[in-house]
Amino acid sequence: MKSAITGYHQDAELDWVAELACGHFQHVRHNPPFAHRPWVTTPAGRESRLGVELECKKCNLGAPADQRGVPRAVVEGNRQRTLELMQAIARGDANVIAETCAEDGKLHVMGHTLISGVYSKAQIRQFTDSILNAFPEGLHYTIHATTAEADRVAVEATGAGQHVSGKSYVNHYHCLFTWRDGKLLELKEYMDTEVVTEVLCGDVRPI
Ligand SMILES: [Zn+2]
Question: Which residues form the SnoaL-like domain (predicted)?
């Protein structure tokens, strides 16, 4: 199937990629003697080919639409923001958390404990206050590993603190942060829910 060129971008190796009307991307390299497309090396050349139709093999295969890669600097920025946010959560810094969270940002505490559920930005602020009530000396996260890709950052961490009840709290987390334009869109917290129930919820379970 043929599809018209609607735009261009460069991939991570700075090779030119044509964006097609069908939603697919196709490399248009100038790599003599293997590929001869000198037009792709100049803005005027690229513009002159807008609207030109290319044969799209991905259409023939029924492939899903391609998406532009997220620049490495943005991915690393998300990783850095994630680590800073975890430190803010650990010390119960509601202001940093409020600044970081998008207006439609959400916290999703997984599982079926008393504190499980989805929290809005306003509720996240209350949740932060409750961290300091539960852990007067704050929590401490030990970060074991981070994985950053596109708009998502996954963090393996151990959280520990002295609960106000006198019990020691140690839990293992796998948190997934989703970012949009430098703001937190969603945080999903996966952890050992038995420890949450025992220490944070005083052994009380939802009815
Ligand atoms: Zn296509």
Answer: 84-186
Q: Give the residue-averaged pLDDT of 173-186.
A: 96
Q: What is the pTM of this model?
A: 0.73
Distance 58 CA to ligand 1 centre (A): 5
**Structural domain harbouring 14:** 2-61
Q: Which two tokens stand for residue 4?
A: 């018209």
- Residues whose Cβ atom is located within 5 A of ion ligand 1: 3, 22, 24, 56, 58-59
Degrees, nearest 5: CA angle 68-185-103? 125
> How far does the centroid of ligand 1 lie from the alpha carbon of residue 56, in Å?
5
Quick one: 77 and 34 in the same domain? no
Q: Are residues 161 and 126 in the same domain?
A: yes
- Is 67 domain-assigned? no
Distance spanning both ends of the chain, measured CA to CA: 57
Distance CA 7, CA 22 (A): 12
Q: 74 Cβ partners below 8 Å, 6+ apart?
A: none
pLDDT grade for 161, boundaries at 50, 70 and 90? very high
Domain match, 23 and 108 both: no
Residue where a domain terminates, one of 40, 61, 82: 61
C-alpha 65 to ligand 1 mean position (Å): 8
Residues 91-134: pLDDT tens digits?
889 889 989 999 999 999 999 999 999 999 999 888 888 888 99
Judgement on whether residues 92 and 45 belong to the same structural domain of the protein: no
